[in-house]
Amino acid sequence: MTDRITCFLATDDASTAAHLRENELVDGVFFSADLFSSGAMRMVADKATGAYTLVYNKPTRLRWVHYALHRLLQIARDTDAAMIYSDHFKMIDGEQTQAPVTYYQMGSLRDDFDFGSVLVFRTDILKKAVAQMDADYRYAGMYDLRLRVSRLGPVVHVNEFLYYDIELDSRRFGEKLFDYVDPKNRAVQIEMEAACTAHLKAIGGYLAPSSFCEVDLKSEPFAYEASVVIPCRNRARTIAAAIRSALDQKTTFPYNVIVVDDNSTDGAAEIIAKLAAENPDKLIYIAQDKTYHAIGGNWNAALHHPRCGRFALQLDSDDVYSGPDTVQKFVDAFYAQNCAMVIGSYQITDINLTPAPIAPIEHREWTPDNGRNNALRINGLGAPRGFYTPLVREMTFPTTKYGEDYAVALRICRHYRIGRIYDVMYFCRRWEGNSDASLDVATANRYNTYKDRIRTWELQARIAENSAR
Question: Taking the model in full, what pTM does it have?
Answer without folding.
Answer: 0.93
